[in-house]
Structure formats: structure tokens, C-alpha cells
Design brief:
The structure is a single chain. The protein is an alpha+beta fold. It has a single domain, classed as CBS-domain, CATH 3.10.580.10. It has six helices and five strands, in the order αβαββαααββα. A hairpin with a 5-residue loop joins strand 2 and strand 3.
Length: 147
């Protein structure tokens, strides 16, 4: 019989222990085709939006891209979809006033916040600069032992 699996002790872990450092980012002037390409190319679903100094100003998620930009037209052929996405600036669909966390925060606190607000990710900032991102997938990877 296989012994029961030990659940990792998350109470001491900090965000820096699970986050993805140096995430892909975009600016408000980027267009949705660029963001869509970043997501598709790198297999990610969240893009922090930064200003020229690297400070967090917003977030675009895959859900934002599908819902706000396509409005159900995600099945359009790329020849139609790409010019349409190029015409939409990130500033027009991004979520502003995004909650962010610091690398030193405990992951248990961050996980509870993500669950209570139904967030799939939180940008990680230090001195107003985006230094990482923590996603629900990061927690799953850690619990599954794939980190």
C-alpha cells in the first residue's frame, strides 16, 4: 500500500518562493494582437501592464481578451481577427487599479485573497516595479510537486 502523501507546509512560504519572476509585460500603448501573441507564444493567460518606468498600471487576462475584445468572435479567422485586434489598444480593455502583492508576503495570505476575490493571478511588485506574477497554477504546481 502506498503511504499517504505529505501535504507541503505552506505556512512559511513567501510569494517569492512560488511566483514567476520577470513576467512578460505590455504597455497601455500595446495593441491586443501583441498581447494575444504573447499569450499564445508563451502559454500564459495574464499580462501585467506597466508604464515607461515599469510600474504596474493594469492587467490584461485571457478572459479580458476573449470577452471584451472578441465579444464571442474568438473563432474568427486570423486574417480577420488580427487586424481587428491591432486596432484595439490595451488601455481600452485592461483592468485598472489591480491589487498587487509583494515578494515577502506569505502565500497562505495571498491564496486566501485570490480565492475570496476569485482572482486567477496577482502581480508582484517591489518599489512600484513589477518583479513577478503569482497565479493559481503556481499553487497547483507546488502542491503537485512539479515546481
Amino acid at each position: 500500500m502506498t503511504p499517504p502523501r505529505q501535504t507541503p507546509d505552506l505556512t512559511e512560504l513567501q510569494v517569492v518562493d512560488l511566483m514567476t519572476p520577470e513576467p512578460f509585460t505590455a504597455t497601455e500603448d500595446s495593441n491586443l494582437d501583441e498581447v494575444s501573441d504573447l499569450m499564445r507564444t508563451h502559454g500564459i493567460r495574464h499580462i501585467p501592464i506597466v508604464d515607461g518606468a515599469g510600474a504596474l498600471v493594469g492587467l490584461v487576462t485571457h478572459r479580458d481578451l476573449l470577452g471584451k475584445a472578441f465579444g464571442g468572435g474568438q473563432d474568427l479567422p486570423r486574417s480577420i481577427r488580427q487586424p481587428y485586434l491591432r486596432s484595439i489598444a490595451v488601455r481600452d480593455v485592461m483592468t485598472r487599479n489591480v491589487l498587487a502583492v509583494t515578494p515577502e508576503q506569505l502565500v497562505t495570505d495571498v491564496a486566501c485573497r485570490m480565492v475570496s476575490h476569485r482572482y486567477g493571478c496577482l502581480p508582484v511588485v517591489r518599489d512600484e516595479q513589477v518583479v513577478g506574477i503569482i497565479t493559481a497554477s503556481d499553487f497547483v504546481r507546488y502542491i503537485a510537486g512539479c515546481a
